[in-house]
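Quarterly update from the structural biology core.
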Amino acid sequence: MKKINYLLLFALGCLLLIPEVAYATNDLNINVSTPGGELDTAGLMLFFTILSFLPSIILTMTSFTRIVIVFSFIRNAMGTQNIPPNQVLIGLALIISFFTFAPTYEAIVEEAYEPYTEEVLTMDEAMDVAGLHMKKYMLNYTTDSSLDTMLELQGTDETYETAEDVPITVIAPAFVISELKTAFKIGFLLFIPFLVVDLVVASILMSMGMFMMPPSQIAIPFKILLFVLVDGWSLIIESLLAGLS
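Predicted structure, tokenized:
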């Protein structure tokens, strides 16, 4: 199980370094072709099995979860339904996630991937180094309460000297829970100014006797105008990056 977890971590680094994926498959001894040039079915299946786990790793072991939820809250608070489209929000969240994950990724490449390709480290040693950097990254944003909860649910009496000694199978779900909690806290704060706009518009319509006019229909243009005037997207992204630095 330990080797599988670390292999997935190493595969994440290979995906982010797109030009190096082909070399990584060779270094991992995944032969996708025979000397005659024909596909090796077993090697090809293993290669694509690893790749199939990569989206889940990126979505749950980086800041993507927090960012995309905050963006969804903003869209719902403004009441613009599907504007911006989901594809735009997901793409922007991925770009910001890669930006915040860059220092950890560079450390994995420099201290684990490159020494392994140069045969300075063995496979197990490289996986240990890569796993340690991933643990440090996730522990920076994992709350103690979430980590304690997952340790209790683990169902073992094993104790750990430091948080970095905790298995990554425990840290990963604790990290996701912490990110969800943080995202909803941010979403609550983001809803407040838009709620004020809705209340003001509703009060004005009631005072004018326009009971049949939906307040949200009138409030949406004002909320969009307010968001544009304060340069909302820049403020949100800047705040997210400050919290993830």
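Residues 2-73+84-182 form one domain.
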